[in-house]
Amino acid sequence: MLVKVFGSAVFGVEATTITVEVNIDKGVGYHLVGLPDNAIKESSYRIAAALKNNGYYLPGKKITINMAPADLRKEGSAYDLTLAVGILVASSQIKVEELDRYVIMGELSLDGGLQPIKGALSIAIKAKEEGFKGFILPIQNVKEAAIVEGLDVYGVENVLQVIDFFEGRGNLQPTIIDTQTEFSRTLEFPEFDFSDVKGQESIKRCMEIAAAGGHNIILIGPPGSGKTMLAKRLPSILPPMTMKEALETTKIHSVAGKTKEAGLMSQRPFRSPHHTASSVSLVGGGSYPQPGEISLAHNGVLFLDELPEFKREVLEVMRQPLEDREVTISRAKFTITYPSSFMLVASMNPSPGGYFNDPDAPVSSSPAEMQRYLSKISGPLLDRIDIHIEVNPVPFEKLTEKQKAESSVEIRKRVTHAREIQSQRFENLENLHYNAQMGSKHIREFCVLDDASLSLLKTAMERLNLSARAYDRILKVARTIADLEASEPIKPNHIAEAIQYRSLDREGWLG
Ligand SMILES: Nc1ncnc2c1ncn2[C@@H]1O[C@H](COP(=O)(O)OP(=O)(O)OP(=O)(O)O)[C@@H](O)[C@H]1O
Ligand SMILES: [Mg+2]
């Protein structure tokens, strides 16, 4: 008998429905056609054991399985359940009506239990689009798939539950999540809040500016000064994610098999890869292509702690994605693209020894060591960082203060307001939403200085020996500072503040 079952393949972040035809005939053998990889070819062993251990069997006949479209490579073990159901029906062990109205996915253990799959959200979105009635998948992935409304999503623990469901036994119910309500509820409670950070008012101000204009930022300070603590709190002051952004980000995490309990991610992600990370883990790729850290940070923050410790070639591969806000992975037969629009926060010690050049520091570094250390970060990546700020440890009295600092929710209100001003300003310009994205043409149009500001900037550039690349960055950051005050003109005090945020351009750092 010939039956059709449906599965799905995920490329990049989009799914394609896969039609699986199972034909059982006289003879012997297990033949798989339609570009399956080895994991799928091995499925017969898992399916045989899983069925046997649950009172069913893999028929000793000629089983031919065709996966279509044939030109699309099918990978991984997530088709076990699709094939198993197809075989059960084709060998008349179970009788199923409406089999063609479901997408079925899951990897089988030998006892018939189910292992989680990747990309459940993308698959669910596609299934809904194509008019399927339901989606049957491992219970571990049910929450991310249930985000999709208008599709019956069934989380199952083992193959027996699936059989019972199709034969009308048991009591399997679709999972229903009120996504909208959960989405708005979690927004008010950031996991890490700026109110935990004592003192550091000037750094917080600086991070507020970075958040308001979407500016990449580097924090320079000795060990223990709170750099990591501050960076972790940046997502909490960025404007709340829109539903569209939340879906995009969740999709990527779903494809990487990294969705947490929650289902829909309503908070902006914070990713902090270790400096020993490889280029593949950072930007994505591999033989089964997977999104990297820069895509997991999509719509959120990528924190590169100890920036100079990262391998130069690893930082090099981040350049393009940082510019394009997406990353393209090319293989001989296909290319896939993952979104990667994130805010970069980097941190570094002021010297390889860890401390600012001050006589009381426990370790000091020679000028040559210093030069080598800083040269590692100069160039392409640093060119994309608008704000440099020095972080000093807070004095003991501050740390022990009882008084609570301003909460992230309060700071976020000002940030969101400044973002609204920017959205209006750039309303008619494609791909331009906030100040950090301005190119030199836009800077000349939107960052016009009066004479007083201009002469201030000129004097500062000469006196502090600021490089030419600092010029555009200062203008952009000054634009954001003005926006935070809802001031249309950029005034001298905005310029004066922006000039302070170019530590690494000054003489003695990168020269
Ligand atoms: N301003 C602060 N308010 C409250 N706690 C602070 C503050 N600064 C530092 N701390 C405390 O010190 C700890 C160390 O800070 P953190 O790890 O962020 O420092 P760091 O600059 O990242 O250091 P390293 O260079 O060693 O990574 C924090 O976990 C926090 O408990
Ligand atoms: Mg740290």
Notes on the protein architecture:
Belongs to the Mg-chelatase subunits D/I family. ComM subfamily. It comes from Flavobacterium orientale. Residues 213-395 form the AAA+ ATPase domain. The protein is an alpha/beta fold. It folds into 2 domains: 2-177, Ribosomal Protein S5, domain 2 (2-Layer Sandwich); 194-437, P-loop containing nucleotide triphosphate hydrolases (Rossmann fold, 3-Layer(aba) Sandwich). The chain has helices at 38-41, 43-52, 80-90, 120-129, 142-145, 159-166, 179-186, 201-213, 227-232, 243-255, 279-283, 293-296, 312-316, 319-324, 367-375, 396-399, 408-425, 440-446, 451-463, 468-484, 492-500, and strands at residues 2-11, 14-25, 29-33, 62-68, 102-104, 107-108, 114-115, 134-138, 152-156, 217-220, 270-271, 284-285, 290-291, 301-304, 326-330, 335-339, 343-348, 387-390. The longest helix is centred in the C-terminal third of the chain and has 18 residues, at 408-425. It is elongated. The model has no long low-confidence stretch (mean pLDDT 89). It binds adenosine-5'-triphosphate and magnesium ion. Magnesium ion is lined by residues 227-228, 305.
